[in-house]
Design goal:
The chain is an alpha/beta fold and 316 residues long. It has helices at residues 16-29, 47-57, 72-82, 102-110, 128-145, 161-166, 177-183, 209-227, 231-262, 274-302; strands spanning 3-9, 34-40, 61-65, 87-90, 116-120, 157-160, 189-193. The two termini are 23 Å apart. Bound molecules: uridine-5'-diphosphate and magnesium ion.
Length: 316
């Protein structure tokens, strides 16, 4: 199979017939073999009934239904695991993303050799309350991750199958799939300007809290992917540095005091000096950080994922 389309959805019953018809029209015209995976993320409207009805007419449709609303990341993760296509595309169910983009995205993966191609809604049809914070969000993510994308959270993306089978999307991490992919070693990341429409049916499922959670997620994902296998390198470095500074200050204070009293000069009490408290804190923090690193190292050593390396290709 050439192409798998993964569509996470929550209460999008009205959009589904139009969406699936449109996808089928575009892809059959191109003669691509494909499947569409509709992941019902615990809808409370009749999305699932609509999916069942559509699937009974159309063998390219597959459905997975969550018992509860677990979030878009969960829906994508489960959808990814079920895909069979050489290329995997994701798109939102609300008709804001256009299926017309799919063939070109497919071509960029198979012919230009991209690991991941992200859509860029250059001209967006969303309220300002969404587009302005999004600019900040994208700028910060670009700076931290070093990936030159304009629109990290675009629902329309295409992946080499290797990428979706290798990465894990959890929590609210769907906003950072390009970052996750890069840290997993899939570095050829491209971008394609895509058409964007106003939401036709239903309402948006994300409020402003997305931006707070978003930044925390970026912090943890950057940290975890860099130091998960070697926490001691992070904590140990900081801890050693802090401990060293504390020790130097302590030696200085002690030496000074000793030297001054040796020469019968007037010396301040050691505890009278701000430097003393600084060195005390530095030594304690140093030991604490070192310990944190050591414990993290032990946890990591006992974890089930200490040797889960990603293999890109094998020969024979
Ligand atoms: N979605 C989902 N689970 C959720 C929230 C959203 O599967 O908990 C789906 C939603 O149905 C849509 C896509 O994720 O297909 C993008 O959501 P939405 O259009 O509300 O986001 P926006 O376009 O406003 O950023
Ligand atoms: Mg939308």
């Amino acid at each position: 199979m050439e192409l798998s389309i993964v569509v996470p959805l929550l209460n999008e019953a009205e959009s589904l017939p139009e969406l699936t018809r449109w996808i089928a029209r575009v892809l059959t015209a191109r003669g691509l073999s494909y499947e569409v995976l509709l992941i019902d993320d615990g809808s409370t409207d009749d999305s699932w009934a609509v999916i069942e009805a559509l699937a009974s007419q159309d063998a390219t449709l597959r459905g997975i239904r969550f018992n509860l609303n677990y979030g878009k990341s969960a829906a994508l993760n489960v959808g990814f695991a079920a895909t069979r296509g050489r290329v995997v595309c994701t798109m939102d169910a609300d008709l804001q993303d256009s299926p017309e983009e799919l063939p070109e995205l497919y071509r960029m993966i198979t012919e230009d050799g991209y690991d991941l191609v992200s859509g860029w809604k250059q001209k967006r049809y969303d309220p300002l309350s969404k587009t302005i914070p999004t600019k900040l969000f994208n700028g910060a993510t670009r700076a931290i991750s070093g990936i030159k994308l304009h629109d990290f959270n675009c629902g329309l993306k295409a992946y080499d199958q290797r990428v979706v089978k290798a990465i894990e999307v959890y929590g609210e991490m769907h906003r950072y799939i390009p970052v996750i992919a890069k840290w997993a070693g899939f570095k050829k990341i491209g971008e394609k300007v895509v058409q964007h429409q106003e939401r036709k049916y239903g309402v948006t499922k994300f409020g402003l809290e997305r931006f707070i959670y978003g930044f925390l997620d970026l912090a943890s994902i950057t940290f975890v992917s860099r130091f998960r296998r070697r926490p001691m390198h992070f904590f140990g470095t900081l801890g050693t540095l802090s401990f060293f500074i504390g020790m130097v200050l302590t030696v200085w204070l002690t030496g000074e005091k000793w030297w001054l009293s040796l020469h019968n000069m007037k010396a301040r009490g050691v505890t009278q000096q701000p430097l003393f408290f600084l060195s005390l804190v530095a030594v304690i923090i140093g030991v604490q950080l070192f310990l944190a690193g050591f414990l993290a190292e032990m946890v990591q050593l006992n974890g089930p994922r200490r040797n889960d390396y990603l293999i890109r290709d094998t020969l024979r």
